[in-house]
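Hi W., the S-adenosylmethionine complex you wanted:
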Amino acid sequence: MFKPALQDGHNRSVSYVRISVTDRCNLRCRYCSAPVFAPHSRARILSYEEILRLVKVLVGLGVDKVRLTGGEPLVRRHLDSLIGRLGEIDGINDISLTTNGVLLEKLAATLWSAGLRRVNISLDTLNPERFKQITGRDYFGRVQAGIEAALAVGFNPVKINVVVMRGVNDDELIDFALLTRKYPLHVRFIEYMPIGSASVWNPADMVSGARILEKIATEIADLEPVAAELGGPARLYRLPDGLGKIGVITAMSRHFCASCNRIRVTSDGRLRACLLSDNEFDLRKVLRRGADPERIIAVVRSALAAKSAEHGLSCNAKRKCARVMSTIGG
Ligand code: SAM
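Structure:
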């Protein structure tokens, strides 16, 4: 049946919601979590019922794609039950998950049974010692096992997200790229953005997507462009003999705001129409005061009307977004 497209004030259609299910995380990445972190109380976090109610309203507005994120989504209990119930909503065509992979070995089969078919795993280094330095935890082996489990269970695609930080992990671009020769992984290099405790962020820490591609082409082989995924922000390539793909997400050097099709909901129920804007709208209040669909829709429409045409943070921007990424859900 025809559904009226949900549009923002710049005629962009919105069909994709990213929902953070928790602000808690089992890693302490320096650039992603706050130095002193007080997680939300359970009462502040949206319940699964509230999330489902919200998604049903969004589906009525034309949203057909949901990604679950966090914090670390897999630390929230019974996530598989939420996935199963999201899958039962008529109109949802795609459910995905962004995880750090620490608990994936244990949970991959359960998530698959619940109906999840694709997963993004964040991993910034292939070096166990460096992993410990970046994340504050000695869990590299667990993440490795999680990636192997994801491939074995049959998730397709399995994407590896690498935030590239100069002087931290930019000497590993080639090793990451070569993974796509051995495994059917999509390795996506993400430009480091000025978010939250990226108050440690400095323009010089960011390595541009162009530089990343140039280095791979020079040191391994020319990259063949691959068609971009529908609505996805990554520009994709393949090594001539690659099983997987290589992508760059250039939010800073060459942003893709013109094709932005997404909104975000934080674990405490704030709607963010733009990842990099701290302009938030309170959905929890309306969800807890009767959850009247018309009132939910009014909040969504206000957020979209206020959404900027572009995120406005350039590589030299002084302004940063205040929330740390772990409480937004990347
Ligand atoms: N815990 C899950 C994970 O690790 O994938 C989901 C949440 S985490 C906030 C989502 C992603 O945001 C991770 O890939 C993380 O590396 C990325 N991220 C955090 N801070 C960032 C920043 N300043 N710039 C770019 N990516 C960032």
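The mean pLDDT is 93.

W.
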